[in-house]
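Consider the following assembly input.
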Amino acid sequence: MKKNLRSIPYLILLSLISVSSIAQNKIVVFQSDFGLKDGAVSAMKGVAMGVSTDLKLFDLTHEIPAYNIWEAAYRLEQTVRYWPVGTVFVSVVDPGVGTARKSVVLKTKSGHFIVTPDNGTLTLITQSLGIDEVHEIDENINRRKDSKKSYTFHGRDVYAYTAARLAAGVISFEQVGPLLPKQVVSILYQKAVFDGKTLKGNIPVLDVQYGNVWTNIPDTLFNRLNLHYGDMVNVSIFYKHKLVYKDKMPYSQTFGDVAEGKPLAYLNSLLQVSFALNQGDFAKNFHVSSGSDWSVEVSLR
Amino acid sequence: MKKNLRSIPYLILLSLISVSSIAQNKIVVFQSDFGLKDGAVSAMKGVAMGVSTDLKLFDLTHEIPAYNIWEAAYRLEQTVRYWPVGTVFVSVVDPGVGTARKSVVLKTKSGHFIVTPDNGTLTLITQSLGIDEVHEIDENINRRKDSKKSYTFHGRDVYAYTAARLAAGVISFEQVGPLLPKQVVSILYQKAVFDGKTLKGNIPVLDVQYGNVWTNIPDTLFNRLNLHYGDMVNVSIFYKHKLVYKDKMPYSQTFGDVAEGKPLAYLNSLLQVSFALNQGDFAKNFHVSSGSDWSVEVSLR
Amino acid sequence: MKKNLRSIPYLILLSLISVSSIAQNKIVVFQSDFGLKDGAVSAMKGVAMGVSTDLKLFDLTHEIPAYNIWEAAYRLEQTVRYWPVGTVFVSVVDPGVGTARKSVVLKTKSGHFIVTPDNGTLTLITQSLGIDEVHEIDENINRRKDSKKSYTFHGRDVYAYTAARLAAGVISFEQVGPLLPKQVVSILYQKAVFDGKTLKGNIPVLDVQYGNVWTNIPDTLFNRLNLHYGDMVNVSIFYKHKLVYKDKMPYSQTFGDVAEGKPLAYLNSLLQVSFALNQGDFAKNFHVSSGSDWSVEVSLR
């Protein structure tokens, strides 16, 4: 009997541990196109700390080019999986603020939460990590007090506020608002395919700091070319189906495998086919950019 | 009796709770014109963590243009109110470092603390949030050890150090140093006024990431024009009283209410009159900037 | 007897406290040349939080110019000493990623840890703070799971992961990997010297935000010129031994001691000889940059 009685708190403790391991973990990661020059990002974090000082606040990036939903989608795809399950992301790239786009919280099948306008930002992450549930944010409940007049800074008053409440456990996922069908607004782009001879894919993003060109073609598809390090490949790059670049380059393990300034193909840190100039800027040199309008072809001859 | 004895720790606990709720909350928010390219911001945070690893450190911005006290003042005005009461801000934009300007800690009537050189940085926040008390920093006490030789990095050795000690409760507000009169150094600028026909105001800051022009004219004053969405207003912009821009534009609820590239007037997230080009850069297109030398007029005809 | 038994956990507790006070303090500070525009820095922090949510994560800078090992070395030298003993730094500027350079963890004599490729990044910090021990990272143990395929993002999969495990106490310093000799890869540069008439030194870095030129000549050496504020000095600046700039300027306590736009010599916040234009950009005006190829001479006539 005594043992039983004493085990009750233990069970409560256990259940808390198990809840916390499958739900929110008090971590919030912010992304936006606000830049770091003004107080917008700081105001979002202030609102979050006002919800709970136990939260741990981090940044993905705030240097998304203004209104570039595609890049917001890609940064989530690049980063979310490296954060612990239960982390709550806020992504605010919102050219349609004030229009009819829905404000949602997505839970991926991997157990990550993303708070965002549903405007295409979720295109890539839902394709890779899957949709567990989507809830629309009920702004009657989940909106900072004294913020209902006129034009609103939704990033601060709705998204950061809702994310903080969710991450801190002030509200449950269900209390975000009405359950929506398992679908999100998606942007069209060239998916990675192999026709037995040529690989096709998209340039989702540049490795901006170095000017490397990253594609969405995964190693698993690339391996079907049966290449060894040093083998030459033909690379063509298109903008809206118009040829922008065409050349041969070796498949290389490291940048140092080619002379300074020479092109190479390699697998980047996400194990996707990429192109670079050793110690140079491929994108700038060949006027290559990224987004849903850019595509590539890679072949052996 | 037993109850009385046991209630003593309870009273101590209560008093601690009540002190912590009206005083510092272990949060420090840093602002400067240091940029993020070197180690200056990191050194300030290292000093703060050396005071107490319980502190929670955040940034407002470090991209204030070099020596631009006005913009420092505006970023505080834009941001402080969104942080919990008791938060300690450090603002270091200090062209007069080493000269006679005072180093102070301001407590606003809202209960926020700001640690800064008193050089105009407090112009706007004191006008909006009021002055509760100002103390001068006694550098004999509140200065990092081993930092007294020659020229000093005051941001690190005095401001970050004092802010950290205050936020962590190592010193009380009184222990900052001598109480000063309730006044601060203020910069002159066009305050928001309405003469019954025309609104006048200042351009405190640009919404830099998007190139939108923000004024200091609040919605309460703007509403006296009795406008409806879609009504046209005349907007004139002056630099040192010289006309820089003049045009008509509609008062709009969202950017999408006008064609791409067209101007609109709207209320920004601080509920202040602002001007933008839909998906364009108003400031860059019309060579408009911000600061105490810039003013605007808005009227119905 | 009973007392003895009960004191065992106490002793364990005591030993834990004493270990934690001399070893890692759960703080990790990140530096890289990744910039803040993509998800790379965030992915590193996500991996660290996956190791332990008790960690406190900060940044030194991520704006090191791409591949600039020298500047990485200088930023560590500028910043490490201001963080509490036991802090773990991660520095990832790694042009040789995938080549034979070693991945190491250095413990300085001051008790700071630095996780980095050993490619010159440790040149300056080891000269100033000394080498306590160097361990090579054993990537068979200290590498993120599921990261062994092909090209790897070492910053995330090895350096951030190892730093987090070390900072959180998941591994001890010894468990990083094999002990190495007390030496690191060093870059050659003009050390600060005084020949009785002329001071010689290097320009390790610019104070980039303001364009001030910082040298490695310390106040202790400078004082041997026996200068008073206002005394004039001759300053010559060389790139690869070729004269780039030569002029006279006063030794000044504060920038305001000279007219706007005029040059001055002063001691910066690290108490090193520096040159500036009052409210101007010395480096830009005179095309002066920094690195191991730049040197200066300062003399009285």
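Residues 193-299 of chain C form a domain with the Elongation Factor Tu (Ef-tu); domain 3 fold (CATH 2.40.30.90). Ask yourself how this observation constrains the way the partners meet.
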